[in-house]
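If you are new to this repository, start here. Below is one unmodified record pulled from the training split, so you can see the exact layout before writing a loader.
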Amino acid sequence: MDEVDRGSQHPSDAQPSAQLHAPDDPAAHAPLPNRQATEPNGAPSEAEIQRRAASRRRRVTMLALILLIAAVAVIIWLIMNRGLESTDDAFIDGDAVSIAPQVGGKVRAVHFTDNQVVGRGDLLLEIDPREYEIAVATAKAKLESADAQIKTGEANLAIIKTTAGASVDQARSDLARQQHLVQQSQDQVNSARATAQRAAADASRAVSLYRDRVMSKQDLDKAQAAARSSQADLQAAQRAVSAAQSATQSAKAQLDQALTVPQQIALREAALAQAHAAADQAAAELRQAQLNLSYTRVLAPQSGRIAARSVNPGDTVQANQMLARLVIGMPWITANFKETQITHMAPGQPARIKVDAFPDMTLHGYVDSIQPATGTQFSLLPAENATGNYVKVVQRVPVKIVLDNPATLEQSLPLGLSVEPEVDTTAPAAAVQPRIEPPATLEGDGKVPDGGTAQ
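And here is the target side for that same chain:
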């Protein structure tokens, strides 16, 4: 009974004792944790009920306060981030050109190393030029031979034009003279034939008279000799006619040839034109040979930084073989936003960029342009949604973000770095002036350059 009475003693009965030991201790007023705060019949006391109700009120108040603070924080966050679109599918992008020779051969010297900064026109690579020097010498000799053919053709054309008129007149005069000689020779033949006929008749009568012993042997011999002489004169006259006729034919042929002088002039002019064409071809081959020789010296087309070098002295390279990459120009950001994020996105809106590689770096820029197609449209195997089962996938649209004053960055930004851009789509759109780099031109455009260039 004593134990029950002590156990059921009201907490207020113990307060004087506690106050005697620690009158200033607030904890003395709290009930002991192991003390039962119940009535003798086991029911909670009124003080315990009040304590529990106060505890519940405090918990509810604290929960409500926490929910209120969270709601206020969410509202503040929504207000501060209203219209901000961000993505982690974004990278540093930029321009890069291939360093490739335009002729093949053995590499004699390499004048750059990995990740080196080079200037426009710097000598990057040398290829053994001996083969191309021989080609230049051969082309020069061919051009000189073509020039000599031109000079010969011009001289022959000038000669034939100068002597053309005189040759025709001379040929006509020779033909007329030969025709006259033929006529004279024919007259001589006729005269010789008559003389020969008379001499033959005299010889025949002389034979008859000699038989009748009217004419002496001596007169007979004279008559026969005269007949033979006349016959010889006839034959000579006939041969003279034949010779005169042959000379006439030759003179006629010379006249015909002289009359073909215009055709000969045209033929010589055509030959001269062909010689000029051969000279032009030889000159073009010489320029090509000189150009190929200049290509043995590969120059940097623009200022930039070398990347992906894959050439060493002694390597044998082919024309248009990529030997390195040259990163040029200013970098930009390519951000692949979801299609639901570009609803209010427009060129000119400001952007803030975080770089994963440099956590303390915050870049600023603006939206330059939005690609007119999703990324999958230009993939190697674009999606074909017209066949089979269709599963809708949120598409991503590449957005180009240009940095503000990228030339003033303290650290270089390698291409391909991951970034997280954040675009303020509540800002008004603005006209964006395209940033175009000046075109890279070869040294000596329109001429044979002093050195090869990168492609």
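Two things worth knowing about this chain: The mean pLDDT is 79. The helical segments are 2-7, 11-21, 46-80, 130-211, 217-259, 261-294.
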